[in-house]
Amino acid sequence: MAKVMEGRPAKMGFRMPAEWEPHEQCWMGWPERPDNWREHAGPVQCTFARTAIAISKFEPVTICASAKQYPYVHKLMQHHTNIRVVEMSMNDSWFRDIGPTFVTRKAGADSGIKEETIAGIDWEFNAWGGHSDGCYDDWSHDSNVAKKIVEIEKIPRFPHKMVLEGGSIHVDGEGDDDTNGHVDNLCCFIKPGVVLLSWTDDVNDPQYERSVEALTVLSKSVDAKGRQIEVVKIHIPGPLNITREEATGIACTGHAVPREPGTRLAASYVNFYIANGGIVAPEFGDKWDKEARKVVMVEGAREIVLGGGNIHCITQQQPVRPSPS
Questions:
Q1: What InterPro entries is this protein classified in (predicted)?
Q2: What are the pLDDT digits (tens) for 224-268?
Q3: Mean pLDDT of the 23-34 span
């Protein structure tokens, strides 16, 4: 069993590394529920596979799949030596929100720390709203994903009573964070003191008012080191909406929030994954795709956003464990 840690991680010398700091590996789940993914998740599985393969060019990837899906996923990935497939039960595949938040601390004679240098924070998960407002009515398997990951990696676990999804926070590794819904669709740190902000020039787009408000707040803010925050804008695609054909392809089971035709999709280029030496970002077949061409683009990202998120939402980085100095 993984060691259960008590106390406040920050008081014990732990911090949450920035996403651009070195990773040991990336964790992903495998989608299959037919009431969230269209056509029994066939199209989105292709996109998850492309995402995993793209990330594996930069760092190891572990894909967690149910017992039913494991043989298929294992065969699909058998020739990709930097991808590991393990069996794991889950209700859906949003590993940014259900996986552990990894924290690290320095070790060695100079720090006086000889114990664990990495741990996972196991937040409470309630399917984004609980029984009254959640996206599905049973998240019992999702609640155990963080525990299983730290057990596999033999990493200590900090149990936490706070309800929190990993996609709702971003850090720069130096004491900063932003929280306002799922911030990973709106903005993110790209280096200390610099924020990438989703933007539109269309004043008639409801997103315009939100982006302007965010720009105003960020421009007047300083980070934890006292630096004035610099904002870099990146245009959002679309607007993109769920088509009737796409909505029809999603099963109605009564156990998940239905996807109605015409609903606007939360499409954003900010929802990317920073890997070791590269960035893996969504491609929407939109005119603004070219603005993000300096990174590896994953074709078919619309399939992920149909389910409610994108590449950042389906991944969780595990930072490199600090070595004793």
A1: Peptidyl-Arg-deiminase_porph
A2: 899 999 999 999 998 999 999 999 999 999 999 988 999 999 899
A3: 98
Say if CB 267 and CB 237 are below 8 A apart: yes
The answer to whether 94 touches 314, Cβ cutoff 8 Å, is yes
**CA end-to-end span of the chain, whole Å?**
28
- Rounded to whole angstroms, how far apart are CA atoms 305 and 32? 15
pTM above 0.90, yes or no: yes
E-strand ranges in 13-73 read 23-29, 61-65
| 121 exposure class (CB count in 10 Å sphere: 0-12, 13-18, 19+) | buried
- Domain-wise residue ranges, the chain: 10-319
pLDDT at 177: 44
Determine contact, residues 76/12, Cβ cutoff 8 Å: no
Task: List the one residue out of 307, 305, 298 whose CA is nearest residue 280.
Answer: 298
Q: What angle do CA 129, 198, 15 make, to 5 degrees?
A: 65
Cα→Cα distances 76→69, 71, 84, 133, 247, Å: 11, 9, 11, 36, 27
Active-site choice (26, 64, 135, 313): 313
Query: Which tokens in the block code for residue 304?
Result: 């992920």
pLDDT digits (tens, 9 = 90+) for 172-198: 998 784 333 489 999 999 999 999 999
313 is a catalytic site residue: yes
User: Which among 140, 118, 116 is positioned nearest to 127, based on CA atoms?
Assistant: 140
Kindly report, residue by residue over 126-147, the tens digit of the pLDDT. Answer: 999 999 889 999 999 999 999 9
Q: What pLDDT, on a 0 to 100 scale, did the predictor assign at position 286? A: 87
